[in-house]
Fold these 4 entries.
Entry 1:
Amino acid sequence: MSRTLKIVALTGGVGFPSTTRTLTDDLLAAVAEAATTAGVEVDLRTVEAREHAVDVANATVLGLPSPALDEALRAVEGADLLIAASPVFRGSYAGIFKAFLDLVDPVAMRGKSVLLGATGGSSRHQLAIDQALRPLFAYFGALIAPTAVYASTDDFGVAGTATPALAERIGRAGDEALRLALATARTHAGA
């Protein structure tokens, strides 16, 4: 593959600092490391849904996205690989995360490679990936990497760094997601 692979991370974290952003950054780094190992050039970008919260509300009500929101939506839609991570609130993804995705063109998401991540206060929320995030991206017709990563507060050790078990899952997910994105990109290039 000779072109640069576009990797976009969409984080739905609402706090600052955000463990969801930390997980998103770790997933993005894992994909970048896998790309370096594979000799693949990547263009990395992170979109924070919370930075567009007011614009998302206005676009939802008025139907007119701001230039900044429109550009963020186009980045997500144009990604070869989307890393999508949200905190879990009451068993599901964050409202701002879903509201942002409600504005994404579903046709642009069809066949897109996606790596899923989620964070929560305890391990009891880990099923939110399978109960909420996977169905959302299945609706879009996205191709979802087999390994998704859920991280609870206990998965972040000293200074907010990933524990060895979390780091291993992140690495595996990053490698799988890159392989999926490369396979998808080759298929589209041959079409």
Entry 2:
Amino acid sequence: MRYKFAGRDFVQVIQARFNALPTRSRVWRGRGADEKSLRCRAGCNARETLNHVSQSCFRTHRVRTARHDKILDFICERLDVVGVKYVREKPISFPGKKLIPDLI
């Protein structure tokens, strides 16, 4: 399968692949920045690294969850085509959070 990207999108894909997206930790590298200037722009009081932004920052949570759900829907469609039986579990609520299991 071949993908077609615009020039800007291609550059961003390459930057993400090589951990070179412009986060505060990367941009301030070697400039003697204080810890306050490296904090996440979303206000979550964590150091803004690519790992933080792509995996745990609340600003990107909605996008991560949507991508996960889209992949899960694709897998369910393929399992239906093949004829495999599966169970898609319902969310489990805990105080302050919601756990969403995937497939059985």
Entry 3:
Amino acid sequence: MADFYQNGITTTLHNLSNRPVEEIESELLTFSKKRPLGLLLPSLFSELEGKAMPKITEQIKQVPYLNEIVIGLDRADLAQYKHALRFFKDLPQHHRILWNDGPRLKALDAELAKMGLAPKEMGKGRNVWYCMGYILATGRSESIALHDCDILTYDRSLLARLIYPVANPLFNYEFCKGFYARVADGKINGRVSRLLVTPLLRALKRTVGNNEYLEYMDSFRYPLAGEFSFRRDVLNDIRIPSDWGLEIGVLSEMHRNYSHNRLCQVDIADNYDHKHQDLSLHNDQGGLSKMSIDITKALFRKLATQGFTFSTESFRTLKATYFRIALDFIETYHNDALMNGLVLDIHSEEKAVEMFAQNIMKAGQSFLDNPMETPFIPSWNRVSSAIPDFLDRLKDAVELDYQEHKQ
């Protein structure tokens, strides 16, 4: 049973009564008549062949309130795109697939690249950004939920609770972040959030001084959750990273663009499990190692825009402060696990903390060595200003792919 405590400066919407999903969906169906609702699914083709996505689609088929489903498909050739069309064919809701590796969308991407407006890295951020552009182009949805496609414990109640705060016309939220306990198979998961982000935010408060942004970020119970929802007007101005800093970048953009009373977080699942990334202790270009560097740089960049000055010495101090705080957190999580009959390997936890501490220095050095780095994807307002008909052509390209290859 969840508590009702409001931590920090971000409104938390709890799961206090385990309300039946059918009851929530009935309300959402009513809301959708005045405020059309959509779903964004950023997917790799390989996820269509995994265990999670077939279950997710079976659950989504039962959802009565969605006006639109937009699927971003990465790493797919023509045969795989056709397979995806068959895979999603039985969805009763209106849906379209962005074939990001198809010739039409690649041509549009090349056009943006010539003007310096295209995403610079492949990955989830790029996929989500193009899907956001398509949603703006269609105008079919006013409130949209986004969730990952590798959720092994998926239930349609997750979607209902995630979209509810931006769907209810009595609420004024522009953005909602999902959170949940990362517990599965008798273990506490979520290492990057538990052992990097939270202790790093606490360490930054000590070293650079507490400020509103750090307090805001530390308000989120699971800042790295891949599940969030938003009103359509959010999409015009948002600038998101194309690397692993996506979730931190989105939260930072919401802080920049909206007041706190327009943002919230919601409890969307009692348990949650998905594909786990390798720790990558000896490869900082992959797995959780690269993720930790990208996330840390995203925080440094945001603080720099607020006037904070960093140096090698300040990063050394930050690393030492982080390391002590993170080790204390390991003891906290270990005790929490024991009381709940769960397993937590202290040795592997400390190895992760040691790697994250080293990567704070790597992220800091990269930040200092590349002052001109601009990892953010331009806003769709900027793209539309530079190429006024681009969104229409994006929508047409997706439709042409669908009409040409549907069976």
Entry 4:
Amino acid sequence: MRGKVPLGDLLQKVEVGVALAAQSQPPPEGEWGVLRLSALTTGKFASEQAKRVSAADASRRSGLEVRGNDVLVVRVNGSPSLVGSGRVVSEVPPRLLLSDLMFRLVPDPAKLDPKFLGLLLGSEGVRRQVKSVIRGTSGQFQLPQREVKALSVPDVPLAEQRQIVAAHAAFERRIAAVERVLQKLRVAEAALVARTTAGTQVRVKLGSWLRRIEAGKSPLAEDTPAGEGEWGVLKVSAVQRGWFDAVENKVVRDPALINPRFEVRPGDLIMTRANTEDLVGLACVAHKPPSRLMLSDKTLRLVVDHSIADPEFVELVLTEPGVRRQVKAAATGTSGSMKNIGQDSIQGLLVPDVSLDDQHRTVAVRAASKARMDSLRKQLVKLRAIQQGMVEDLLGPRPVS
């Protein structure tokens, strides 16, 4: 059967980035910057997530400039599920430095393809190992460098690695095509909100549209989704822009930890209280949630006053650029950790004062595109499941001749 080797045997080195005094704004074109952790935690490599640093400080660290084909890994994060996640850099502007919250894994080119290494880092076997060796307490978790090198990975010949990468890339092209259509629909949705609010000069506090905000709790739970008839507690990833992903939950087996008062009900408007900077404060309506799913302490139920506001319009308006800027300004937390927004700050968000009739009309116009978006998301889920299954199968045991 195919053997296993320590990942360190396939690497030339593991590099840690640098902590530099940095300004909060991104670097102008041609100037030096250091990557934010959010460059690696938003699903894809996001080079725009960077902070400006002085040329004098950067020049002394130019050896840590990020380059194309680099394999970057989250070293420290407030969310253990993000620690150890990796991204392969395809294109990157010049003069961006590696942060001290990240590793750069440098493969031995005779043994390991960088893109194959990226697939390994996302495989179930490696993710299980990472989870078992993470160190730290609530709020700050880290992956030691020695544990990265000790990860047990399949010993796959270089030619076969490239075949697996090519098969994965074919799925990526299909997924990208669906995502482009989704993005066009999101742009149209944003334009719809902009048209609805264009003539609205007055803003009101979001709290005036709410009866109350209810918080959940996070009981001890296993990191696997609840099965039929079981209770689960939501992960923050259950709240997506424009849709509720019920699969993102953790099973709760101890009956003493189950509280039906926190159960998600059809029509609930759920918001993330804690998440990464770009995702904190997102909200979605849970239209047909399965039974026995509870709010976690990182998710909130916004109980809307239906005589004043439509929950689906509130979901939409919370994505408006002006509101998102308020959310980011109100969110607290240090670099590398989860951002949090308090209930008082949520109540105080200023939203366009749109009449209930106009809200209903906007939601009705959105209905067709929302149905199309839901269909596309289901396609993406299916494609990604097939893609991941294919990769896991190709990484699995093989007879040794």
